[in-house]
Amino acid sequence: MNAPPKQTMDMYGPSLAGAKVLVVDDEPGMRHFLTKTLEARVKRVEAVGSPAQATKALDEAQYDLVILDNLMPGGTGLDWLTEQKRRGLFADAIMITAYADLETAIAALRAGVSDFVLKPFRANQILSAVARTLDRKYLQRDNVLLRRELSSGQGHGKLLGNSEPMEDVRAMLARLAPLPTPVLFTGASGTGKEMAARHLHDLSDRADAPFVPVNCATIQPDRFAEELFGVVEGDERLKPGLLLLADGGTLLLDEIAQMPDTVQAALLRVLEDKKVRPVGAEREIPLNVRFLFATNDDIEASVEAGRFRADLYHRIHVVKIHMPALKDRMDDIVELAAYFMDRLSASLAMPSLELDAETLLKLRRYDWPGNVRELRNLIERSVILGDFPDAFSGAGSVTGTQAIENLDLVVQRHILRMLDLCGGNRAEAARRLGVSRKTIDRKMQAWSE
After folding, report:
1. What is the pLDDT of residues 275-289, one digit of tens each?
2. What is the DSSP string of 361-386?
3. Which of 160, 240, 283, 334 could bond 87 through an S-S bridge, CB–CB 3.0 to 4.6 Å?
């Protein structure tokens, strides 16, 4: 069967494209009709003829939506749906039936049915119901993730910098992007581990699915299992955890060394089985997630001290990417400062400050123990106060693009930073820079005039 015209597919919105749909109907003709209607528009469609077969399908794979007949041999669709809710069901449901009355409609709503379609129906009717249900499902997911992001105070940001250490990081991320391999990001606080993880996600074939960062240090230990794995609540409805919200996408577990002991064993099982069992659920729900991890702790020392499980460490430590400290990528300072100045002045609706040559030189020569985060905070504070702190303020006449891109000023910042690293030893600085001592002396004389 030929795929429908592109404009026909688009009218139902993009939510269908990545969806996995389970059809449950005892009539072969209806199963065939729904399969042909959906298969060109969704990522996957599976059709089964009984509640028992549907239960088996849910045990083996994850679905976003179940299209369910009500009256079938072996029990009603509503009874089956109620049972699946109790066991743990992540999919939304659309009820299709030829027998509609008020009692059935009320029972369907109580069972958690998202939409109700009467037989007989046309293809556009079921497609509209599917699109509405998936749009609502994804909107609820995105709202939850957006609220978490806003409450954390963290924006998306960008992985900036063209220094040699950052080019090495980018090359490794590009190599890992198409693979399912877990990645462990290490490095001091503020070095951009989450930005690198997000960059990896954006390069992968999961870029259109959620990227879910989780800071393990900020979750209360007694809430950790419910937050991560989800929970079947008192009304037998599943409140999905962060693992299920990340389904199809990428989950970053930051500060992984701070994960409670009681959760580490459960996470190890998730990594090995690719299934998650919400708290209070009977079913292990199949999971499709790319796992990334990050820590600024000495995780090997935590393993040695017995604070972190050795088997979990070896499971997550497949590939390690160490994020360089800002002092080791000082060639990126000017680009970072200019980016933060533009972004923060716009977000704060306040005038940006001129980055003159003297200020850029001072920024370049500072060691930045707080790394990129410290630089960002300095720029934000300076925009709010309307001036740089004394340690970074400048009175240079060269400002803006000229101060940033002028070759002589770029060379000056680089040489003076190298002299700082060499304790003022010009001969050693010249050796590291690959130039003669006379070149250093000549430059220093010119700058002092």
Report:
1. 999 998 888 999 999
2. HHHHHS--TTHHHHHHHHHHHHHHHT
3. 283
